[in-house]
């Protein structure tokens, strides 16, 4: 198993169950997922990821595009439930990313912690980012990315976040050493438990979006 599938398997076997407004979830708290470049390659080769859509999604995020219609025009339909506009969601924060990347590439300071903070809790939002903070550090000429997730849908959201972070790393002119995700609450929704088991057995599956 690749490291992503290992954490799916761990949730299935060791997770606890709780209920929220979206239904029952099987969850684990405070999990760490550290991925080297070889781990990323394994995940992308072994796990189906909508690479083109996620690449386009990130581009729209960084442009600050808030209209869900623009995402739908590019085949990205998973934001439709939010309504016509994304209110204080990912584009609000990711539009700061291009300037931050320019700063990192210009300075490349080992002593500097470059941070992109997402999701203030004191503002109205129709989809508060699950990815709460991304930190960029440089050690011995290599890039280390650390990300904190307050909540992570392991079946759908987590692989997308991993791929987004990888795409971001490609924009920084340094070799990547690792991407580490701190998963405060990583979970599988009840209706995706059986498909996840099938996935881990090598079957092709389609997960259900829970909103």
Give a quick precis of the structure:
This protein has helices at residues 3-14, 37-46, 51-62, 68-73, 90-94, 97-107, 157-170, 193-200, and strands at residues 16-20, 23-35, 114-117, 131-139, 142-149, 152-153, 176-189.
CATH class bucket: Alpha Beta
- Main structural class: alpha/beta
CATH homology superfamily: Thymidylate synthase/dCMP hydroxymethylase domain
Stretches where pLDDT falls below 50 for ≥5 residues? Answer: none
Strand content bin: 25-35%
Q: What would CATH call the architecture?
A: 2-Layer Sandwich
Number of domains as seen in the coordinates: 1
Radius of gyration: 17 Å
Helix/strand order, N-terminal first = HEEHHHHHEEEEHEH
For the termini, the CA-CA separation is: 29 Å
| Mass-distribution shape | globular
What would the average pLDDT be, to the nearest integer? 95
Helix content: 25-40%
- Helices, by number, come to 8
Q: What is the fold named in CATH at topology level?
A: Thymidylate Synthase, Chain A
Main pleated-sheet profile:
7 strands, mixed
What's the count of strands?
7
């Amino acid at each position: 198993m690749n490291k992503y599938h290992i954490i799916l398997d761990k949730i299935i076997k060791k997770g606890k169950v709780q209920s929220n407004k979206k239904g029952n979830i099987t969850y684990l708290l405070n999990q760490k997922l550290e991925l080297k470049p070889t781990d990323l390659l394994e995940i992308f080769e072994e796990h189906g990821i909508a690479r083109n859509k996620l690449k386009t999604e990130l581009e729209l995020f960084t442009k600050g595009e808030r209209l869900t219609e623009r995402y739908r025009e590019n085949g990205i339909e998973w934001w439709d439930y939010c309504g016509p506009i994304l209110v204080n969601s990912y584009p609000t924060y990711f539009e700061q990313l291009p300037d931050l990347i320019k700063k990192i590439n210009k300075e490349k300071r080992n002593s500097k912690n470059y941070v992109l903070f997402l999701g203030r809790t004191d503002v109205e939002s129709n989809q508060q980012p699950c990815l709460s903070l991304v930190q960029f550090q440089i050690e011995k000429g290599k890039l280390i990315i650390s990300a904190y997730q307050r909540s992570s849908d392991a079946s759908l959201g987590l692989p997308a976040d991993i791929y987004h972070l990888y795409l971001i790393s490609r924009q920084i002119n340094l070799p990547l050493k690792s991407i580490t995700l701190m998963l405060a609450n990583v979970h599988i929704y009840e209706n995706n438990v059986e498909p996840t088991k099938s996935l881990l057995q090598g079957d092709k599956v389609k997960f259900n979006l829970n909103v």
